[in-house]
Amino acid sequence: MLSGTPQLTRRDLLAMIGTLAGSAAMYQAMTTLGFAQESPYKGPLKLDGDPKGASVLILGAGLSGMVSAYELSKAGYRVQILEYRKKAGGRCWSLRGGDKYTELGGFEQECKFDKGLYLNPGPWRIPYHHHAVLDYCKRLGVRLEAFVQVNHNAYLHSAKAFGGKPQRFRQINSDFNGHVAELLSKVTRQGGLDQAVSKEDREKLLEALQSWGALDGNYAYAAGDRSSERRGFEIDPGGGQMPVPKPSQPIGLSDIVQSGLWSSLSIGNLYEYQTTMFQPIGGMDMIAQAFEREVGNLIHYNAKITEIDQDDNGVTVRYEDAQKGGEAQTATADWCICTVPFSVLSQVKTKVSSDMQAAIDNLPYAASIKVGLQFKRRFWEEDEHIYGGITFTDLPNTLISYPSTDYQSSGKGVLLGAYSWEAWAYEFTSLPPEERIKKALEYGAQIHPQYNDEFDNGMAVGWHRVPWTLGCYGEWTEEKRREHYRAASAIDGRIAMAGEHISYIPAWMEGALLSGLDATGRLHQRVVNG
Amino acid sequence: MLSGTPQLTRRDLLAMIGTLAGSAAMYQAMTTLGFAQESPYKGPLKLDGDPKGASVLILGAGLSGMVSAYELSKAGYRVQILEYRKKAGGRCWSLRGGDKYTELGGFEQECKFDKGLYLNPGPWRIPYHHHAVLDYCKRLGVRLEAFVQVNHNAYLHSAKAFGGKPQRFRQINSDFNGHVAELLSKVTRQGGLDQAVSKEDREKLLEALQSWGALDGNYAYAAGDRSSERRGFEIDPGGGQMPVPKPSQPIGLSDIVQSGLWSSLSIGNLYEYQTTMFQPIGGMDMIAQAFEREVGNLIHYNAKITEIDQDDNGVTVRYEDAQKGGEAQTATADWCICTVPFSVLSQVKTKVSSDMQAAIDNLPYAASIKVGLQFKRRFWEEDEHIYGGITFTDLPNTLISYPSTDYQSSGKGVLLGAYSWEAWAYEFTSLPPEERIKKALEYGAQIHPQYNDEFDNGMAVGWHRVPWTLGCYGEWTEEKRREHYRAASAIDGRIAMAGEHISYIPAWMEGALLSGLDATGRLHQRVVNG
């Protein structure tokens, strides 16, 4: 900018645009200036151009397969879907009373939850910036409610800290912030930041630390109203002539840092877990069911794929009945979108380029387990005033998540009693399901002794033993992504891969949808442009 | 503890109790050892003993009056309630389409919200530790949903910072934490804490700061995946061959501290606003309606109290018809619970001790205003991906709160467009209601330019002009509380005061309920003990 030119701020510019062109234009300008929409999802897919009767065979009726089928059939394609299971949804799955599930190796479980209760063995929460998931929920009429990720009254627990006694999140959080603010205030006031930070900024920083850290007038984090207004009181304020409020005693810096409990403090600040998160009312598979209502007529269920072949003219897929076996059947189409997880696909004869085959063969899948526990009453609410949210522990169950729905309802309740990964997940699945549940109870009872009296029944799903996925999600390392992702996501002859594993958001439904939409869009371009 | 005695930890003790006496006993022990229940609310009131036909006259059918009536009539008292309005609930109030409201001075407003939409002019959220409110909701069948207080995708806004451009909460929050962690790490590593913190603790502190503040391997808070996983990306991760994710650029320390936006960062850490907060599904007055279903038959509506008299034998209250005026009527009883706000009561001739009269005359009431705005569409969700939660601003409207319900519903939406106090509240109410709404629109449009095109209609309630309260809540200073609280909360002859103002939780429904319960309990003791 030339010297002497009056500096036009972004605000001036916006005001000018607003005056000249009205507020709609101003909002457009704000967007252009970086206001919104970092998402690669740009709204409903537009598939312009005539598909000229082209057909697409979709393998797998999970979210990526169903969204592809939905968009392609709307655009005039002839679509069919082959699905291994007798229902749609893939990992978007909810277990309810009466459901049966048989894992690899033959262990069968029957779910005995009460009516209205469920476990989401797969995805269980939706970030506010998963725009594709939210948009399809809106368009397909899936109602959402808030999922509580951080609950200040839930616990942080370490078997090795505080004598194994769980601590309320609010206390560890307040005290960590308070000590950090006090330490940095002290240093600032003693001149320790004089080199690094300007005088004006130091003054504001002190003001900020005092406010943010609940420091008192002397920049100390100490027992009193200010700290208790964060961490809670020893005696809460009451009414009339009830006992007068009494502040609580903060935990010292050393106990806080040595406890390790700080490792769970920032989870709610992660982009993926920030407020506002959602869950569908009634279970995650409400999304699967909504898609199934749209494309269910295109799905061929119980189809176990045995071979995928292609040539210049089209794709041929051989499959057999997943329940009864028997003679191989054949499905053909001009094009194919394959959403079969690479963990399974690597065991199917597939005619693709060697680059694609290398991608298929080289993507490891994460092992994980979820254990759902039904209790005779919602003791976490009744006894401990924990409504939704998550308790974190360093025991092998890693967490306990309380239902974010039907608060204060009487009757039974189902909580997520374990969500474990890798080595701990394998430890769980080395046992039969009823023993896995016992383990989850044993760990959880260290936090909630009521477990012992109130347990009713449970379900344990280890994803590496789920026959139709053989793993939880495609676990790209940086190196594997560099080596194989481009090939994995390219249209290989007449076949495009889709699913959470063909995305930068593995394990999330958003990854599955965006991948399906992207594959669909590129396939369509190929078709209409010849 | 004697030297040589093996030290018994709390955990050992609990384990021992668990082994000897079972888990229920263990939980009792944990509670006793400080596990739960800081609240003065100890569950449903037990009023043992025979009231021998005693009668109680309750003044005001707000929550404190209705809970007193509910408990007293269950215990066998003869109860009647006098209520100024033609409906119950007091400040627990929701405005819906068709409702009319006339304020002091005569301005009348008719609410034109669409069916299903509402504004809570009074209380609008329930903390998880307001045990009395939650317990009555449970017992009276009021269904709750999560109220979102902190939304990482809502805005922090200052007209004086960032050219007036609102900033996403997640960005200011991540960057503030990051800079604080980086500064304190640097000092720690340079030896600046060597005197204050032990070596073992310094090592753990560094580890904690790196984790909590999203610092990189060099303890720096810098553009990259780690910071973007908190503050969000410039390009979000996508699927297939969508553009690859791109990290965003953090805001510098100086801009963060000078902006003042940090002043709203810790609100979600306050005990009163921590997760999980609630609201009744359908509007706050679902609680009032639930109580009214129980005690409505005891309420005499439209009763404007003109004098409260008492002698050794009982209480006599004179009142007239609040609508039609006319001749004074009289109600008598053995005892009285008066829940009339002191702001109103100070204008009623009341026979009480001089100490009580001093309390009545000396409690100032807070001025505040709420403005509800209906828009033609939920643009905050559709355009800006803000679902529930609150945007804070330094403009006189102070905040914008988005509805924590019916997420993604189509049709119109009502948001809270202003919630202002004292001087700013008086400024609003110096104008007629339609002008107050215009002001709220003018301020809000600086954050959401869509206001200009999408506004439909609004309601503005200034509490200091509400005829039945003449203020928002009893604003005890420390000095006033020392001087007057004991007298205000004492049973004065045959009269006990109750309401949020007779509590240590003024302005909250919990204060009203606890105060009513406490007065009821003490009155009952007086009755049964003669």
From TrEMBL, chains A, B:
It is an enzyme of class 1 (oxidoreductase). One of its GO terms (molecular function) is tryptophan 2-monooxygenase activity. Residues 63-521 form the Amine oxidase domain. It catalyses: L-tryptophan + O2 = indole-3-acetamide + CO2 + H2O. Pathway: Plant hormone metabolism; auxin biosynthesis. It comes from the Bacteria. Keywords: Auxin biosynthesis. Pfam families: Amino_oxidase. Its EC number is 1.13.12.3. GO terms for biological process: amino acid catabolic process; auxin biosynthetic process. Belongs to the tryptophan 2-monooxygenase family. This is Tryptophan 2-monooxygenase.
